[in-house]
Structure formats: C-alpha cells, structure tokens
Amino acid sequence: MKIIFLGTGSAVPSRDRDNTSLLFLQGENSLLADCPGSAYLKLMRAGLEPALLKSIFITHTHPDHLYGLPALIHSLCPAGKFPEVYVPEGIAEMTRALLGLFGLERKIEITECAGELPFLNTNLFKTRHNAESAGMVITEGQKKIVYTSDTGPLEDSSGIFRQADCLIHDCSAPERFKENFLGLDETHTSAETLGKMAQSAEVRMLVPVHFSGEFDFTTDEIEKSIRKNYSGKLFIPRDFDTLEI
C-alpha cells in the first residue's frame, strides 16, 4: 500500500500545507480521500494519471473536504472517465447539489456507504467532528491502516486503533492553543492527546495530519508534544510525501 499526502493542512492552509487529502494506491486500485482544491494537478504531481483514479471518498461535508470535486469532475470531462464517488450516509443529495451547480451531477455515480467502502477491505467508523463524519480502517493482509480525517478524541479509540500498523490522525495543534482554538480536543485533536491515544492503543506508527494554519507552531513542537506520551514510530508528513506500508 502506498499513501501519498496531497495535503496535510487544515481548513486554513499555510504557505507549505494545503487542505488535507490523501491518495491510497494498491496495484491498479486508487482511492482519493477527500477532494479539496486543485485535485487534478495534485494527482498529476503524485504520478497518477487523473483519468485512472478509481474512487473518491468524501469523509464529511465541510468545504475543505469537497469543494474541489466539481473542478476535478469538470477536468475529467475530455477524457470521459470518472471515478466512483462514495460518501457517508445522508450527504449524497448535498454532494449532487454541489455538482448540479455546474451541470455535472449526471457525470458520476454517488453512493452512500455505512459500514463498508468498496476499496480493498475498508470499514468505516463514526468520528467526532460533525453529524456524518467518518474515518476508514483498511485491512490489507496482516496490515491495518486507519485514517480518521477530522476528529476529536474518540471514546473507543483503543478498540478502533488497537495495534494499527499505521494511524493517520487529526493533529490540529498543540494543546497550549486550547484557549483560542474552540473545539480543540472536542471536534479536533491536540498533539498531546493524540500521543496518549496512540500509546494506549499500541499503535505501531503514528502519522499526524491536519495541522492548523491559524496558529503559530512548528513540526518540532508537534513532535515534542506527541512524544510526551507516545514512544512508537512517528512520521510527520509534508505535502506530497509518500509512505509505503
């Protein structure tokens, strides 16, 4: 499994980090998790011909996770090949309406998914962010890969994340920003709390993403904050970094 980080920032990007979006590749299978801006260009930079993208999963309906979908579908029109689009329950109508603003709603199939996603062996779980937000657990052979997208700390994190070979998790800011960051450790997760959860669940590799561009901190501070509680392998990606599991 190859994972390419097309973006690692929050809804407010920084100079070096765009909105979080991940590309999962396994053989001819490809899944784009969330679709913010310039997805066509980012796929090309990642080495994937955009017309060969098999599927897209929109984790929830906040703008930084799906506003680029109409542009991507529009750019694929000359090729005439479109990915399958999957969404959590309850948001297919909204997603079609967004595409309908540009007359693109009939170009693709949009399927609501509850427990499973038709990409390899992928199960969905509810996250703590908004009404429909969902994360993914991909099982490939003996490997377990978890991607939460945006979320606060989960009550059952030890069960969902237990001995994950790779946990890719919301890590919006160090906890010292709680006073000014409404929702930190509620609908988003601080670095310190993430370290505690990963250690408790015996996560083998932790990959923090979704760094907030609104606050002034460095990846060194993120690493030190996580390391207060977590002793496993830690990978802090930059945009367009690649990870092989």
Query: What is the CATH class?
Result: Alpha Beta
What is the number of strand segments?
A: 14
Q: Which structural category fits the helices and strands?
A: alpha/beta
| Architecture (CATH level 2) name | 4-Layer Sandwich
User: Tally the helices: what do you get?
Assistant: 7
- Please tell me what the overall shape is: globular
CATH topology: Metallo-beta-lactamase, Chain A
Stretches with pLDDT under 50, minimum 5 residues:
none
Strand content: 25-35%
What is the straight-line distance between the termini?
Answer: 5 Å
Helical fraction:
10-25%
Q: Rg to the nearest angstrom?
A: 17 Å
Q: What is the CATH H-level superfamily?
A: Ribonuclease Z/Hydroxyacylglutathione hydrolase-like
Tally of discrete structural domains:
1
What does this structure look like?
The protein is α/β, with parallel strands linked by helices and 245 residues long. The chain has one domain (2-244): 4-Layer Sandwich (Metallo-beta-lactamase, Chain A), CATH 3.60.15. Helices cover 21% and strands 26% of the residues. The chain contains 7 helices and 14 strands. It has helices spanning 39-45, 63-66, 69-76, 92-100, 157-161, 191-200, 219-227, and strands at 2-7, 21-26, 29-33, 55-57, 84-88, 110-113, 116-117, 122-126, 134-140, 143-147, 166-170, 205-209, 233-234, 242-244. The strands form 2 sheets. It has a 7-stranded mixed β-sheet with strand order 6-5-4-3-2-1-14, with helices on one face. Helix 6 packs across helix 7 (219-227). The longest helix has 10 residues, at 191-200. The protein is globular, with a radius of gyration of 17 Å. It starts with a strand and ends with a strand. The model has no long low-confidence stretch (mean pLDDT 96).
